[in-house]
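To close the section, here is one more complete example, presented without commentary so you can practise reading it yourself. The ligand is 2'-deoxycytidine-5'-monophosphate.
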Amino acid sequence: MIIAIDGPSGAGKSTVARAVARELNLPYLETGAMYRALGLEVVERGIDPEDRASVEELAGVLALDLDRRPDGSFAILVAGEPVGTRIYGLQVTEATSRISAYPGVREYMRELQRVFATDCGGVLEGRDIGTRVVPETPFKFFLTADPAVRAERRWRQLREADGASPRLADIEREVRERDERDSSREDSPLRWDETYRVIDTGELSVDEVIAEIVADIGSRQNSGE
Ligand code: DC
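Output:
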């Protein structure tokens, strides 16, 4: 079984996807962490994120691996080492948003994700899982929320990951800019269509969102869909 959970940043995808995977006893892959791992390498090597040719070249030679943890989620390894929480820092987040628009990068990541989905099944969370990576799956959810709500969540996460205290107004502006980049890129933009179930997470608690998804999957399995 493959479950696609897509949506913009800060919509609560990671928390929800991880919990749904746990509840259904399925593997879980956070595909944003794969793009972030490349973003981290770009930053650490001092490559300009706007330099598409260098970034695509790096994607082609990057030894990116997925390593199953005991809880069923997958750690991202670069050259055999787990990337850890550094991928969630501000600078890496900004760089990742830019480099994830490049077709050479997306093609590389999509291929890895497709192999993962067909080999392991499970819950895959990202931006284009239901539209491009595994469009054939019937289980597609699009989580969204007002940008102000998502910015506040991101702001809290950043404070925890970075120990930094960024201004909420700056984070909200960046969230809106990233939404714009995610939605307007030519290669696999952030979209949902009628094959998705859309859930506004601003109105619901995390537990309610998880319950809605699990119930939806259960009812469709029971009805033989
Ligand atoms: O989900 P996230 O915020 O951790 O994602 C980090 C970045 O990666 C974000 O800028 C969008 C991009 N991304 C993507 O383009 N496609 C995916 N399937 C997952 C993430």
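Once you have examined the tokens, check your reading against these statements. The mean pLDDT is 93. The chain has one domain: 2-217.
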